Amino acid sequence: MLNTQPKWITSQIGARQHYCVPQGLHQDGLLDVLFTDCWSPRFLKKLPLPVNSVRSFAGRNNANIPSVKVVHFTGSAFAREAWFKLRRKWSPGINPFEFYDGYGSWFAKAVAKQLAARNLDPARHWFHGFTTGSLETMELLRSRGIPCVLEQIDAGRIHYEIVGEEARLWPGWQPAGMNPPEAYFARSEKEWETASVVVVNSRWTRDALVRQGMPLGKIVINPLCYDLPPWGQPLQRNWKAPLKVLWVAEVVLGKGIKYLVEAARRLAGRNITFIVAGTLGI
Questions:
Q1: Euclidean distance between the first and the last CA atom of the chain, given in angstroms as a whole number
Q2: Which of 49, 176, 232, 257 is the most exposed place for a label (fewest CB within 10 A)?
């Protein structure tokens, strides 16, 4: 009997969602290959790493995904990121979205070049990638009849309209001149057109994309996943200990950080501890 199970090609820039998509596919025996920009040696996680950038690179790995299934471009990625950091040092006002746009195009072209040399089967192969880093890859795959699933990372233009309004409400919290250029949005919209299906994680994002012209029938809602640890003994609440409020999102206006700060200010003196575990954004 022929094996009719699908084989998934996955592609992502960075450790988005801690590689949960390729990890889950591998665990189900469905992962063909993961393409990513950087992939670190696993021994780095075992070392004491005092420099934040090195610790960040050490996290660009997932022990549940065999390295033989990973294709990465770490050297080229490092060179591009280093050059961008030098440019920002010389010109602090440079718009990082110009880098993101070019980086996504470079990555998608590098993946497409690798896939162009492979024998792909439209009856079995599927593709999963994320917006900003999938356009040229999907253009190649769609020309070969491969279905492409595109995961949307934000609400497009509407997201940045909201961030702009928040920046006006809370001056000083958002650097000036950091809005995406038109080319950034145009690239994302072309990705939407090229994809077979677009995945979002909420009804709100789905509705936002529909308002921007995406057909409702092309969108699938798939909430963000979380891999629960094994359950142990039930947690016992110590009512005398401080209530802990944990922030795990990026520390940016787009995630609402100003409202956390305002809540902490209003609750000063109460038995509450606020913990910020997110990364600094733009």
A1: 53
A2: 232
Give the tens place of pLDDT for each residue, 48-59: 655 565 667 778
DSSP for 234-268, written as a single string:
PP---TTSPEEEEE-S-BSGGGTHHHHHHHHHHTT
In tens, the pLDDT along 11-45 reads 999 998 889 999 999 999 999 999 999 998 877 66
Q: Which amino acid is at 184?
A: Y
In one letter, which amino acid is 120?
L
Going by C-beta distance under 8 Å and a sequence separation of 6 or more, which residues neighbour residue 250?
A: 257, 278, 279, 280, 281
Structural tokens at position 94: 């440079």
Residue 253 — φ and ψ, nearest 5°? -60, -35
Biggest CA-to-CA distance, the chain: 69
How far is it, in rounded angstroms, from Cα 35 to Cα 108? 10
Q: Indicate the length of the chain as a whole number.
A: 282
CA pair distance 11, 179, nearest whole angstrom: 26
